[in-house]
Every structure is written in C-alpha cells, then in structure tokens.
Amino acid sequence: MNILVTGGAGYIGSHTVRLLEKTGGKVVVYDNLVTGHKEAIKNSLFVEGDIFDSEKLTDTLKRFDISSVVHFAAYSLVGVSMVNPREYYHNNVVGTLNLLDVMLANGVNKLVFSSTAAVYGEPETSLITEEIAKNPTNVYGRTKLIMENVMADYSRTYGLNYIALRYFNACGADVAGDIGEDHQPETHLIPLVLKACLGKTDKLKIFGEDYPTTDGTCVRDYIHVNDLGQAHVLALKALYNGHGSAVYNLGNGNGFTVKEVIEAAEAVTGLTVPKEIAPRRAGDPAILVAGSQKIRQELGWQPEYTDINKIIETAWHWHQQNPDGFAG
Ligand SMILES: NC(=O)c1ccc[n+]([C@@H]2O[C@H](COP(=O)([O-])OP(=O)(O)OC[C@H]3O[C@@H](n4cnc5c(N)ncnc54)[C@H](O)[C@@H]3O)[C@@H](O)[C@H]2O)c1
Ligand SMILES: O=c1ccn([C@@H]2O[C@H](COP(=O)(O)OP(=O)(O)O[C@H]3O[C@H](CO)[C@@H](O)[C@H](O)[C@H]3O)[C@@H](O)[C@H]2O)c(=O)[nH]1
Q1: What's 326's DSSP letter?
Q2: Are 225 and 215 within one domain?
Q3: Are residues 106 and 193 in the same domain?
Q4: Quick one: which atom of ligand 2 is closest to the CA of 261?
Q5: Rounded distance from Cα 128 to ligand 1 centre (Å)
Q6: What is the pLDDT of residues 180-207, one digit of tens each?
Q7: Active-site entry in 11, 120, 140, 305
Q8: What angle do helix axes 258-269 and 189-197 make, rounded to 10 degrees?
Q9: What is the pTM of this model?
C-alpha cells in the first residue's frame, strides 16, 4: 500500500498517518500547511503542495507509485463557513474535484474521504443512522454532501472506489503527547475549555442556552481522534480487499451537552473553567449523536475510547505538555 494522505499535517490527518505507518505501507503526506503543522509529521515523507496544483499532485502520485488516497485536506469550521462560503465551496468542492481528476487520470481509484455529521443538519431522530435525510444547516456540511454525491456518481461511472467516513466531533490526542489539536485560531469546544483552564484564552463562551436539550446547550458525540484514525486503516484495507464504495458514521453513540463537557473537563483537570453564556452560533444544530453500527458490523471497527473523561484526559495531557501547541 503506497498511500497519499492529503491534509496529513492537520489534526486528524497526523494521528491517522501514525496509525497508517504501523500497517507497513508507504505513507506520503501532501499538505499546503494552511492550517496544518509540519512538526506533526514525525516519520512519513512530506510534500508541501496544494490540492489545486495538478502538476505537483500528478508528480507526487507517479514519484511514489501511489495506489490510494486518504483525503483530509479541507476547511472544516461550521461558524466560518457561514460567513465565508466562497472559500469553503472553493477548497472543499473545487479542490476535491481537482484531486479526483488527477487521481483518475493516473489510475488511482481508491479513496477514503473525510465527511461529517454536519451533512445531516437537524435530524428528527435522536440516533443518526446513515440512511436518514441529509439537510445540512451550514455551508460546511453542504460542501461535504456535494462531494459525497459527486463520489457516488464517479463510482458508478468512472470506477472510483471510495469510503466516506462521516465523523462526529473529533477530540483527544495521541497518548504519546507529541501530537494533538492545534488550530489557529482554535474554535473547537474541548481545546477551548482546556485552554481556558490553563489561562491561555479568555472566558469560554457557551453558545446558546436555549436549545431543546436537557440543560439548554447543544449535544454532540465526541470521538477520540485515534479511534477515527483506526477507522481509516480499516476502510483502506477493505478497499484493497475489494470492498465496494460505502458511507459510514463514526461516533460513540453517546451525546454530551456543552455544560457536561465543561463539567468533565473540570473533573479531569481539577480546575474551574471560566465561562459565560453567549448567543447561539449560526449554523449549529441542537443535537448530533451517531449510530455507528454499520461500520462496527461491516468493517469490525471498535472504538477504544468511550469514556468522555478518558478522552479529555488525553487532550489535557497534550495541552499541558504543549501549552502553545507546535509553536511552543
Ligand atoms: N475536526 C472535526 O471534528 C471534524 C469532524 C468531521 C469532519 N472533519 C473533516 O476532517 C478533515 C480534517 O479535519 P481536521 O480537524 O484535522 O482539520 P485540520 O485543519 O487540522 O486539517 C486539515 C489539513 O488540510 C490541509 N489543507 C487544507 N486545504 C488544503 C489544500 N487546498 N491543499 C492541501 N492541503 C490543504 C491543512 O493545512 C491541514 O493540515 C477535514 O476534511 C474536516 O472537514 C473534521
Ligand atoms: O467556544 C465554544 C465552542 C463551541 N461551543 C459549542 O460546542 C459544540 C461543539 O462545537 P465545535 O467544537 O466547534 O464543533 P462543531 O461545530 O460541532 O463541529 C465539529 O464537529 C463536526 C461534526 O459534528 C465537524 O463536521 C466539524 O468539522 C467540527 O468542527 C457546539 O454546540 C458549539 O456551539 C461553545 O459553546 N463554545
């Protein structure tokens, strides 16, 4: 397996790269470092490049005799996508279309794609399974749903073989403590809660206290980044073993409110999170909780981290060791 990992210098990408390296395959990271960190790549080959750069992509596929692609490269912030849709459609849709063109032109037809729970929007059921209606409430979710539809069409017509993984909320860090979440600026709940504990940011803003949930704050399904990474390893192996194109949810099946996450972080750190109630953030659905039976049954995926405190502990370890992220 010679694998190209676009966006492999990013948060989920770098954790997945570490797990892919253990399979014995050759791993080549391709990233323009717009939000990623070169320091997050410890062992794999690294090519600094953009998914819009067809020439460099073609050269990289040929030079390393690549036979599959794991595609993380994208913009992924719900809030930003609502105020800057053009950037999101451009990078996530046009950029991915370009990558697909280059792959197919070079005979590479295996792809694992980062999709998202955001494709579902505001589901009417409490546990989300893959086949329910997709009505994204934000631009980011729409960009990923467009690409899922494109891949289904390319699979039918051009022989693309893809597995799209719809992640719920990625969090945590590798227990080694040398890679972790470092977005600039950070917008994700768990790192912001922990940074607030460390006095690295202002008070945590709780976005909305009037949602139809137990305590009025949004519910999310938090999944450890290494459990996500392991699913990519399984998906890739399945594609090499002749598995057809498929779409899977990836979550723990347990929802936590924003306030419950804060309480868990306070229990793990022994510190108090400075916080205040703020208005709702545009585009946020009230509740997103995954039904992940399909990937468990079909690919044998089994998450290792199912306890929110344990997940937060791994993130806390990273933030304590690296309070200024990779720049520290
Ligand atoms: N973080 C989450 O909770 C979450 C949940 C669901 C889906 N996802 C998806 O997972 C993927 C990775 O997310 P992440 O949290 O690791 O984000 P990230 O920003 O840490 O990683 C994205 C990586 O892609 C690179 N990149 C972006 N545009 C590029 C381009 N045009 N050319 C080359 N490289 C480019 C960035 O430099 C970065 O290294 C994204 O596709 C995201 O939409 C993330
Ligand atoms: O300072 C903050 C940050 C977040 N939140 C809330 O915390 C929850 C989680 O927010 P965040 O960590 O920003 O993640 P999401 O917006 O749920 O999106 C993440 O999870 C999605 C899947 O569910 C992915 O598709 C996205 O890429 C990824 O950013 C939401 O209800 C937010 O409103 C706050 O209250 N205050």
Answers
A1: G
A2: no
A3: no
A4: 7
A5: 23
A6: 999 999 999 999 999 999 998 889 999 9
A7: 140
A8: 40
A9: 0.97
